[in-house]
C-alpha cells in the first residue's frame, strides 16, 4: 500500500512542480521589489507570509477604495446634472469651468478603478501562490511519512524547493501590494487626563509603525491648553506592523513611563477622518487623541 502511494505521489509531485513553475509570479507579472517596502530591502527579507493579515488588509483597502469611488461617482453625477442645466441657460465661462471639473473627476475615477483592479489582481495572485504552497506542504508531509526510496527523496527535495519558491513569491506580492496602501496622515490632538494633567507638566509621545518613527514633545499650559512641537506626521501603511504608541512624562532629567499601547490600522482605510482615542494607562486615566486621514 505504501509503495503504491509512493509511486502515485511521485508522479503527482512532478506534475505539481510543473504547475508551480508555470504559476510562478515573476514569470507572469513584471513586479519589482519596491523601495518603500521595508520587508523586501536587502538584508531584511521576511520569509514569513501572513495570509490572514493580508486578507484583512485587502478587504479593508478594497472597501475604502470603493467608498472613494462611490463618493466621486456621486460628485460626477451631481456635476453632470448641473452641466446639462448650465448648457441651456448660463454664462459660457461658467459652463466651460464646469466641464473642466467633470473631466477632472472622470480622470480620477478611472485612476481609482485601475487602482482597485491592480489590488484585486495582486491579491488573486497571492491566493494562488498560497494554495500552491499549502498543497506542496501537505505533499511534503505525506512523503516524509512514507518509506524512504530514491524517488521519494527526490520528490521531497523538489517539493521543498517548490514551497520555498511559493513563499518567496508570496512575500514578493506582499511588497507589491503594500505600495498600493496609500498614506496615513496622523494629527496630534492632545492628551486627555482630567485631574492627571496639570499646568507645567511636560510629556513626550513616541509613535512607531515598523521603521517609521514620530517623536514629539508637549506641555500643559496654565490655561489647560496644550502646545506640541509637531502636529502632523505621514506614515506609510505596513502589512505586518501595528502602530505602537509610548507616552512618557518628563520631570527634569528624569522620565516616567505613562504607558505603551498598540493600535491596529485596519479601520483607518476610510474616506472620512478617523478620530482615535487611545487609553494610555490601564485604567484610562490618561488618553491620547489622534486624528487619522487616509
TrEMBL record:
It comes from the Eukaryota. Belongs to the RIPOR family. This is RIPR3 protein. It comes from Bombycilla garrulus. Pfam families: PL48 (PF15903). PANTHER family: PROTEIN KINASE PKN/PRK1, EFFECTOR, RIPOR FAMILY MEMBER 3. Residues 1-294 form the FAM65 N-terminal domain.
